Amino acid sequence: MEELAQQAGITVRTLRFYRERKLIPPPRREGRIAWYDEDHLARLRTIAALLERGHTLNGIAELAEAFDHGRDVGELLGLGAPTEETPVRLSPEELADVFAGQATSENLAASLDLGYLATDGTDIVHISRRLLDTSAALVREGIPLADILAAARRVREHADALAELFTDVVLTEDRTPEDLQRLRPLAKSVVEAELSMALDRRLQKRP
């Protein structure tokens, strides 16, 4: 414990306090000996970085609980599943910076529930570079992350319905899943064009 505290730049008393608050996972035990590893050191450095960014210990504890109970990255990405999205690997402090202090436990829980985030050791993986960049841009425009995630849930429902519709149209008796993958760009073009025209109609209605 003394060695871990020294490496993290904290006192043993602080380390014990973090353990009591469940800010770090329990050590591996062999009899009376407690073994700490690089994951514990990484978590302590993350705590220090989040404290420097103005997070409270209560907030950090909630974040830690959300990540510790989040999905594993393998479960999130789905081994062998076809995708056009590029996952992004982030540290907790990098994620906090991306969303300008709005990476609260509530927003992280919503992101985990939507399947946007997963954990991989001490890292966080976002399922899609495009969605991450778009969400961050909307936050910079002054839109609360909570509102973005609420809208994302509704978008997910509509996107699932559109995917089901396209699949039903394409996968007739003489077509295969390979045809569906080949025709995928056509479905995206239809959705993009319809959304563009729908936005035009919305803008025309505004006074």
TrEMBL record:
<dbReference type="InterPro" id="IPR009061">
    <property type="entry name" value="DNA-bd_dom_put_sf"/>
</dbReference>
<dbReference type="Pfam" id="PF13411">
    <property type="entry name" value="MerR_1"/>
</dbReference>
<dbReference type="InterPro" id="IPR000551">
    <property type="entry name" value="MerR-type_HTH_dom"/>
</dbReference>
<keyword id="KW-0238">DNA-binding</keyword>
<feature type="domain" description="HTH merR-type">
    <location>
        <begin position="1"/>
        <end position="66"/>
    </location>
</feature>
<dbReference type="InterPro" id="IPR047057">
    <property type="entry name" value="MerR_fam"/>
</dbReference>
<protein>
    <submittedName>
        <fullName>MerR family transcriptional regulator</fullName>
    </submittedName>
</protein>
<dbReference type="GO" id="GO:0003677">
    <property type="term" value="F:DNA binding"/>
</dbReference>
<dbReference type="GO" id="GO:0003700">
    <property type="term" value="F:DNA-binding transcription factor activity"/>
</dbReference>
